[in-house]
Specification:
The protein has helices at 9-13, 31-45, 52-65, 135-146, 190-202, 213-216, 245-256, and strands at 16-24, 27-28, 71-79, 96-103, 111-115, 151-155, 161-164, 168-173, 176-180, 206-209, 221-225, 229-236, 239-240. It has 259 residues and is an alpha+beta fold. The strands form 2 sheets. Strands 5, 6, 7, 8, 9, 10, 11, 12 and 13 form a 9-stranded mixed beta sheet that branches. Strands 2-1-3-4 form a 4-stranded antiparallel beta sheet.
């Protein structure tokens, strides 16, 4: 167990970043993409970059401590480290790395979504980063659970579709795939990139767009993240959604892609 000092800025301010990596079939899936995103986040937050070998060793140690389950979620935290009281960071930041692993069951089935009242702040630089401050997402997910749903669909401050509480969002119309533009306040998801690449490989048009709920309503939908992969959406706000062969084809293409 790692003791976190009471002056750790990740603990007191949410100042830091995290990555959640899937361990499956003896592989840390999309490992390089995760550490590269961690590096990009560090540059945005002006944090020193972690040594990649140290991060890898921490992930592997966490798996050993968890007795290396067949499938696991490996959580890596890169906190800004200790600092004085207040907002200003120390002149010589010394980030703190922690890692843990938790066993996962099989991938979940189709998701039920509700549109959350809490909005994604598309004007905040943090909306594009995987920071340790995820409170809006926590509230949105709680709202979904209270409504009997699995996940929350979040709109941004302009009323545009942004993301789910812990996933990127896609929908299909007229044999084309659509997803919100990153400027909608969207995390640059690892699986989001994989889906876009799979669409290009399959010759399927894919567009990054600004869209209100009206453009999404009734369309086949799916959500993605690093743990669940491609997850179809069965229901949005109480309305059953159709499936699409394209979603199945994209999921198969991603499962065959090198990790």
């Amino acid at each position: 167990m790692t003791d976190i000092p009471l002056d750790d800025r990740g603990f007191t301010l949410g100042h830091g970043l995290f990555e959640t990596v899937l361990w499956a079939d003896g592989v840390l899936a999309h490992w390089e993409a995760h550490v590269e995103r961690l590096d990009r986040g560090c540059r945005a937050l002006r944090l020193p970059l972690p040594e990649r070998a140290v991060v890898r060793a921490a992930a592997e140690s966490a798996l050993v401590a968890a007795e290396t389950p067949k499938r696991a979620a490996v959580r890596l935290n890169w906190s800004a480290g200790s600092g004085d009281r207040g907002l200003d960071p120390p002149s010589d930041p010394r980030p703190r790395l922690t890692a843990s692993a938790a066993a996962l069951g099989p991938p979940p089935g189709p998701a039920r979504l509700i549109t959350a009242h809490v909005r994604r702040n598309d004007r905040s630089p943090a909306s594009r980063l995987k920071t340790l401050s995820y409170l809006d997402n926590v509230i949105a997910r709680a709202e979904a659970r209270d409504a009997g749903a699995d996940e929350a669909l979040m709109l941004n401050t302009a009323g545009e579709v942004a993301c789910a509480a812990a996933a990127n969002v896609f929908w299909v119309r007229h044999e084309e795939v659509f997803t919100p533009d990153l400027d909608c306040g969207v995390l640059d998801g690892i699986m989001r990139r994989e889906v876009i690449a799979a669409c290009h490989a399959l010759g399927v048009p894919v567009q990054e767009v600004y869209a209100n709920l009206g453009r999404v309503a009734g369309a086949p939908m799916f959500i993605t993240n690093s743990l669940a992969g491609v997850r179809p959406v069965a229901n949005l706000d109480g309305r059953e959604l159709p499936g699409s062969p394209l979603i199945t084809a994209i999921a198969k293409a991603i499962s065959r892609a090198p990790k």
